[in-house]
Amino acid sequence: MSDKFRVLDTGVLEGRLNIAIGQAIIEAHQRGDVPDTLRFLRFPPTALIGRHQALGQEINLDYCRKNEIGVVRRITGGGAIFMEPGLLGWELAFHRRTLKVKSLPELTREICEAAADGISRTGVRARFRPRNDIEVDGRKISGTGGFFDGDTLFFQGTVLVDMDPQTMTSALRIPQAKLARHKLDSAAQRVVTLRELLGDETPGLEEIQDSLTAAFSDRFGLQMAPGELTDAERVHAQELLREEIGTEAFVREIEEPPAARGDLAGVCSGPGGSIKTYMRLEGPAQNRIRAALVTGDFFVTPPRLIYDLESRLRGVYLEEVARVVSEFFQQSDFEVLSVSPEDFIASIEDALASE
To answer: Over 90: is that where the pLDDT of 284 sits?
Structure first.
């Protein structure tokens, strides 16, 4: 495997197309058609939810519609974010052995520390904050996250260069519990931009991209070479946009939890994120799971693991839930970032306790 990275800058593109391009890069990389890749991307005003989140709970859809803000579901986990042209996105697609680190938590730390170095080169003191944030003086300037798909790791991040915090807080539904953990009154206090920190000394986007590219190159000993999307990647991205990622069915795949119709709901929250479980029971004694929905801002590899877990829970008697979930994770090839199988069990048990 070559240690040369292809560096792309795809500029400002419609949100769902941006996500589709990321998926197209992953699949081309898995086939060996393209090298390891660092891509810079930007969005028009767009609200993006994590792969496993419930749409209406995380995004103010009425506000987004009235203000022509795009609504997109990412292929990565984590929480909802707001993007606009003044915010820089970056993503990495590379082979598991490229960075010579195996686990997702280890890779997250290595990549985030490199990204923090790159941001610091612009004139601020950025630091990695586990599980996946980069901060300046306790305020978030970058969020990150990713997953393995086979031997390809796809990892995304942002740099808050310049933005309107009021639009962000209006477009997203920020949980008060999340703000309370940081002793803040509003989400706007939680984040900070390079513009706020550096004023007229804020570097341009090209300089910021060069700083990040150099930091990744220095930390991991990689050769960075400018490149372009292949024709095949462009064509496949359009197919994904048309058939899956760009469809309303994909964006609204997790929209109205069963609890909204009076069923059971439970949550397990901690430093690693929140896991919310919604369940509907069946049987004369209401002692068997008819359907389960697991949502939240966690990261899990592979993403389809959650759908497999929901399927495995169907028909399980309540007294068997903890054993079944434990066995499911023991038999699965998975990785999670800062959450554990016990956290999923706790969320399910919290739902059952609400019966």
So the answer is: no
